[in-house]
Amino acid sequence: MTTSDRTSDKRPGEQGRRAPAGAAVLREDVTEAIRSAVFEELAAVGYARMSIEGIARRAGVGKTAVYRRWRSKLHLVLDLVSAIAVQGLPTPDTGSLEGDLRLLYEVTSRALRHPVASQVIPDLMAEAARNPDIDAALQKALREGQHGVASGIVAQAAARGELRAGLDEELALDLMSGPLYWRAVVVRGQLPKGYVERLTAATAAALKAL
Fold first, then answer.
1. Tens digit of pLDDT per residue, the chain (210 long)?
2. Pick from 116, 120, 136, 140: which is nearest to 128 by CA?
3. Which of 38, 88, 178, 184 could lock 112 by a disulfide, CB 3.0 to 4.6 Å apart?
4. 46 and 94 housed in the same domain
5. Do 64 and 108 belong together in one domain?
6. Do 58 and 87 fall within a single domain?
7. Which 8-state DSSP code applies to residue 90?
8. In angstroms, rounded to a whole number, what is the distance separating the alpha carbons of residues 58 and 76?
9. Sign of CA dihedral 177, 180, 181, 186
10. Rg, Å, the chain Cα set
11. How many helical (H) and strand (E) elements, i.e. helices and strands, does the chain have?
12. How far is CA 20 from the centre of its chain?
């Protein structure tokens, strides 16, 4: 590793003042370029064929810039997937249960239909069956992130008197999240016209029956 590799991030051909000896300067724009490249590389070749070399090439940086942040592709993917969980979705607050559910479904369905997400999630789910670390990170990202939003929607609806207090939140989460993930991640087809509206009404009715 060269002195410049230890002290600063530089894209190929980039010139600039060298950082003081021994300093560790991790440029945020380089970090973001690497993160974007990871998702693009996952969508293009899948986890098994993904390599640090491919990520660095796609990000326009040297391999050293990647290794200074993450020691392997596994740690890189685990870090990115875990970051999704802590970001989470904002809890909708439209003033009604059906309004909250519809907004949640509209936002989630758009995210799941994104070309990168639609390719990356199924691949990581398959890899999770073989790798417990990826499985744990994926569970956290996909389940805990949704759980916080679902709990917020249920709590707001209960406070408005639309749902009974103390209902089974785990079952509520299954009812709220299961159908959309089935359609978008497993079936992976286009949502039928009016699907979100019908799903909203059906889920609200099911929650009120709990």
1. 433 443 456 555 554 444 444 445 788 999 999 988 998 898 888 888 999 999 999 999 999 999 999 988 888 887 877 666 555 567 899 999 999 999 999 888 887 776 666 677 777 778 888 888 888 877 777 676 677 788 899 999 999 999 998 898 889 988 998 898 888 777 877 888 999 999 999 999 999 999
2. 136
3. 184
4. no
5. no
6. no
7. P
8. 15
9. positive
10. 21
11. 11, 0
12. 37
Locate 150 and state its tokens: 């679902």
Given a contact cutoff of 8 angstroms between Cβ atoms, the answer to whether 12 and 61 are in contact is yes
User: Does residue 193 share a domain with residue 165?
Assistant: yes
Tokens of 24: 């560790």
Looking at this protein, which amino acid is placed at residue 209? A
CA separation for the pair 180, 66 (Å, rounded):
35
In this structure, the answer to whether residues 117 and 173 fall within a common structural domain is yes
